[in-house]
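Thread title: Can someone regenerate the structure for this chain?

I was given the following input by a collaborator and told the matching structure tokens would be attached. They weren't. Posting the sequence so someone can regenerate them.
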Amino acid sequence: MGEESFVYTACPGWGDHDYCALKTIVKDGKIERMERIEYSEPERVDGHICQKGCLAGRQPYDPARLRSPLKRKGERGSGQWEEISWDQALDEIGAKLCEIRDTYGPQAVTLWNLGAGVPAQYSFENLMPFRFANTFGVTVPMGSIGLDNGPFYAEFYNVGDEFAHTLVDPRIVEKTDLIYVWGCNPIENQMRCAKSLVAARENGARIVDVGLIFDATAGFADEFVGVKPASDGYLAMAMVNYILANDLQASDYLLARSIAAYLVDCETGQLARDEEGNFCVWDNAIGAIGAVAPAAGAYPSDDIALFRRFDRGGKEYATTLQILKERAAEYTFELAAEKTGLSVAAVERFVREWVEAENAFILSGYGLRYRNSNETYRQFLLLGCLTGRLGRPGSGVIEALQLQSYPLVFNDLPISCPDGPANVKSVPVRMHEWFAAAESKDSPYKALIVCSGNPVHQQPDRQRWLDVVRDMELVVDYDVWLTDTGEIADYVLPDCMSFEREDLITGACYNHLILQEPAIEPQGDCHEPVWVFSELARRVGLGDYFTMSIPEYIDVRLQTQYPLVSMIQPPVTYERLKAEKIIRAAAPPEPKYTPYLNPAEVFSNATGRMEIIYAERLAPVGLEVTRVLEPNRIGKSDTYPFQLFTGRQRFFMQSSFTDDPITVKLSGENPATRLNPADAERLGLSQGDKVEVYNERGHVVTRLDLDESIPQGTVHVWFGWRRRQFEEGTYAEITAQCAGADSQGPAEDKWFADWLAAGHHPNPYVESMSALTGSTDCYWDSWCNIRAYAGKEA
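Best answer:
Regenerated them for you:
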């Protein structure tokens, strides 16, 4: 019997922004078990493992995984396949790509790469498809996808950047008085956050869960505040109104860190500026307008007005905080009660407890998936600013649950863009524009290569994908499993699991860099992405771009000037990582990372201060001051009177783990629809009935579970189950289009235009945040109806 050894592995349950590295114990060439990782001090105790991580070591041996390349034999989607060699698969795919390129141009090939659930993100599973795309010249359809957009919108119009100000270390919530967990379910789905919530409770914090469903976080919390779908903004704006109406704002903080005192030219809606381009404020010391230079310039005196409206030279001016106070006045406790379904007394208590607490957090996630959610996240951030809690120890707003610690940046552009960003050949298209062209009679897109993700299953409106793919000349899927996307492909190529390939784990590792080493040999004829895209590139005449080995690519990534990596001593290299496995970044042990930590930070917007109170760039679309927008569909149809909710559960990760018999059994063995008993009684439905959930786009058939945790007016079909596991249809047939008409409008277009005007690159395969900029996540802004299933004939 051999001795046990171990390597580190990115968990196959990677996703929901709980990106865990695990310790894989190996014996006699097989995975023995999975354990949580132990980081070095001071993060030694902060490794995590959940039930999915514990079960992950079974996956490489699953008989259902792909073990050799497959080629379609019958009609597309017929399920008829033949096993072929890699040489045959790559020769035929390469030849077809060349034919399409020579006939229609390289942009006729679309390459889909959504790495949110692929372990490890920010790795070769992303970088190698990017490298191929940017040298071949494919179309990139990933711009402005309707996914997780709200926190990035809020941060962009506050401080001018997006990703860096959504990252946060969850341990900052462990010493506070009050936490409002709003619109997310971390107790079930985010272990890092769950651990910190437990610590906060043990330290005396009161925890209130605000949301639609009574889930595990609601059960853990001291109180559950159930609100109607898409009504969250009314509650948040009632808090804003209460703060300003009662003079409870953190005035010194607002002056120092925000544009609360800046004057607005009320005729143009723009911030007032003098002839030198300075911003204007009202200086009480001299009773006149004073100037403030850009980039957080100094005020002209110590007596600057926060609230003032006046005429000067025939023009009307007002401070941004004055305008916010006037517009927020409509959001009364009574209005919030009407919209949320709470009592007026409950709204008042909810508002006052958070506003008046000594230390308090709002802890949100990506769970507000409504057409109005971009503004709701902006309102959360506004509350943190008005109360001076952004960056203050023991307080704050965590709007994204993008959990890790100090951001780490690597030298990835030479890998994804070998000729440099200016010479990238791929063509970015915003997703709603790509669909508009792809659905047209003369679609310019002739091939689809899917490298990461499962769009036919995971993306909304499944039929739209089937229609687009139907007339394509080539569809290739590269995955570990035969997914819903793979089922309609011409070729399916088997990827290695994270247990079988070498990579660099960098995301959410609590200030550590980790080398992922193969735990076992590939189980079957599988290949990792460096080999696959190097071989494919050679067949389309791009082999000169793909000559490096995995260790060489890792060394390129490590050659970064980012201080927290470049200052590691001795310098970190592949060889050092190979010897040590895990190395701590040059990050300070304290304080824990929060994006507003530095009170002297000058933000990358025009003013250098927080602009969450007044975003002049949004004035052309009427959103310079945030307000509550209405949802698209919820409550708008007599034919489809129910909200469709497709929330996640703890045993699957997106569509991963849906092949494991243990997780399937824990998940109820087959899909179910949950409905409030009162709704069921009204409709004549009973526990266990077979029901059909439907709308104008399609339907799904499941058994019915009656559950009082589901509010009346909502139908919950669990996310994750594969199409083949439903009797008929799937939830993906009936969800709202993201991106599409449901999630695009003037505000989203303005956001994308402002993003580009700020100097960002439009191509997500060059600058990844272009994928999440310029849209709204509205998955749960979907309507439906429900009835007893009468069979296919009906």
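The first helix runs from residue 51 to 55.
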